User: Fold this.
Amino acid sequence: MAARVLPLPTLLLCAALAATAAPACAQAAADTANNKHLAIGADERVIRAGDTRLRVIVENPGDRERADELHRWLDECAQAALTAFGHFPLREATVRIRLVPRRGRDSSRDSSPVPWGQTRRGDGVAVLLYVRDDASLAELRADWTAVHELSHLFHPYLGDQGRWLAEGLASYYQNVLRARAGLLDADEAWRRLDGGFQRGRAVGAGRRMDQVGWSRGSTMRIYWAGAAYWLDADLALRRERGTTLEHVLGRYSDCCLDGDEHLEPRAFVDALDRAGGRGVFARLYRRYAAMTEFPPLDAAYRELGLSTADGALRLSADADAARLRRAIMSAPRRDPSPRGRGD
Assistant:
């Protein structure tokens, strides 16, 4: 445990009274140590799951109580990520939480509790989250950004041509994993996925998906056409291979994932097929990468028992469809096989 540093006034008081008031000094030190509102700098803690380690650093919490609150929130988001395959994707990763002031306290334009997040490679920082300094714990729990960024740890760096795959996976899992962890109602998770698909479709046609990169105005299409790819893959794996997306991603992470690695998108999907996809990922990649319009989801929606009317999502009571929806939004049973074994 790190030594606790007393503030200067306390140290001077203890020095002045050392000969006659040792008990008073001891009490002053105890009171200071127990003060939850003691100003602190960076606060670092570790979340462990098996042999994996997630370092969480709150850079400027102000006091111990706020640091505790932010660590509690990030731990909940990390536990949501763990519902994918039971351990963090990398042996060690770091999350930095940086508090920032709201721009214009009376403006609704800056209402997001986590206005920005980023996953970075190669400099020891895996995830950086900018958190509004006045965001409440309830607001943070309702936000998707942290789970989205943690989901980026499930894949290598894919470059501009693979941005739609990377952002699509994080957008798909920001809803699925939060539902599995109880941070989001399962039916609401389907509504949020559908809302994302509607926003992506509204962008209209453009360049091929593997050529969009960072094109201005294409963000919603990149994120949600990419999410459609991963939903399609998840359904195909369940239907054709008797396995799941998280099972394949877990096997890939065990054998091959390196946090600093840069892979071409096609090399990544080929590696997923070797890890258990057996052709599903490459087949869908060829189709999605060449699309210039938003992918049709009619077949996926029929299988899931989803339909839309007047912009609202309806969930069918059909038993098979409801069972499939529950399976996707429920934490999977753990694969007892050891790490590193592939198909």
Remarks:
- The radius of gyration is 23 Å.
- The first helix runs from residue 8 to 16.
- The longest strand covers residues 92-100.
